[in-house]
From TrEMBL:
<keyword id="KW-0408">Iron</keyword>
<feature type="binding site">
    <location>
        <position position="83"/>
    </location>
    <ligand>
        <name>[2Fe-2S] cluster</name>
    </ligand>
</feature>
<keyword id="KW-0479">Metal-binding</keyword>
<protein>
    <submittedName>
        <fullName>NADH-quinone oxidoreductase subunit E</fullName>
    </submittedName>
</protein>
<dbReference type="InterPro" id="IPR036249">
    <property type="entry name" value="Thioredoxin-like_sf"/>
</dbReference>
<dbReference type="InterPro" id="IPR041921">
    <property type="entry name" value="NuoE_N"/>
</dbReference>
<dbReference type="GO" id="GO:0046872">
    <property type="term" value="F:metal ion binding"/>
</dbReference>
<comment type="similarity">
    <text>Belongs to the complex I 24 kDa subunit family.</text>
</comment>
<dbReference type="GO" id="GO:0051537">
    <property type="term" value="F:2 iron, 2 sulfur cluster binding"/>
</dbReference>
<dbReference type="InterPro" id="IPR042128">
    <property type="entry name" value="NuoE_dom"/>
</dbReference>
<feature type="binding site">
    <location>
        <position position="124"/>
    </location>
    <ligand>
        <name>[2Fe-2S] cluster</name>
    </ligand>
</feature>
<feature type="region of interest" description="Disordered">
    <location>
        <begin position="210"/>
        <end position="265"/>
    </location>
</feature>
<dbReference type="GO" id="GO:0003954">
    <property type="term" value="F:NADH dehydrogenase activity"/>
</dbReference>
<dbReference type="Pfam" id="PF01257">
    <property type="entry name" value="2Fe-2S_thioredx"/>
</dbReference>
<keyword id="KW-0411">Iron-sulfur</keyword>
<feature type="compositionally biased region" description="Basic and acidic residues">
    <location>
        <begin position="210"/>
        <end position="219"/>
    </location>
</feature>
<feature type="binding site">
    <location>
        <position position="88"/>
    </location>
    <ligand>
        <name>[2Fe-2S] cluster</name>
    </ligand>
</feature>
Amino acid sequence: MTSAITDETYAELESIAARYPQPRSGLLPMLHLVQSAQGRITPEGIEACADILGISAAEVSGVATFYTMYKRKPVGDYHVGVCTNTLCAVMGGDEIFARLKDHLDVGNDETTTDGKVTLEHLECNAACDYAPVMMVNWEFMDNQTPQSAVALVDDLRSGKEVTSTRGPRICTWREAERVLAGFPDGRVDEGPAAGPASLVGLGIARERGWTAPDRDQGDGGHGVPEQPAQAVEGARVSDDKQAEQAAVEEKAPTTTTAAEKEDAE
Ligand code: FES
């Protein structure tokens, strides 16, 4: 049984809508806040969003049922996603998912009887360089195996502190939903922003002196829209910093060797 939307949550929903020139642009984060407050998208949450935005409940419901991150059934404390898209699947994702279904005694999109873990198979998380990848409350857990996956869910269920392999300490699903609604929890700087495997290409480019085409040359025929010079420069400085950090922390020996071998040939 879910209680009604509280006055405090209603006020926060209004504050989200007020962030945007067109209030209905705030619907997605508003739905995340509903999930944070109520554990799922409820009829009361839909009505509240519709009321604040001046649109129909059917329109809100249409959005809430379109995106898979919005849940109509209660989610456990930890939403555990296993990528079973092509690369992760062949690297072990299918095996991990099958092992977890058996270990947790749940099917896809189902929650354990203790209410701790909801298991779901996910499509590509854009983290293929660390396949097979899992996510807990949308934080990456890289390079998993069936054994590490079982240990992970056991740790979560026992209340042990778990840290993402590329991010912060894992909070609860409801807490994560609040962050997605735009209310920071102060953990954004915990953990590395990018891992060495994601920066290998950048490292090779820097070793060889490769640079992106000059912006005056347009999109180079690749259909990539030009970005403001300030944004490009900001991204370049950020990438440079990460590459330098990665070079210090973990020089990618296999890639460097491959690049050197190619040079020799
Ligand atoms: S296929 Fe799993 S992250 Fe891309």
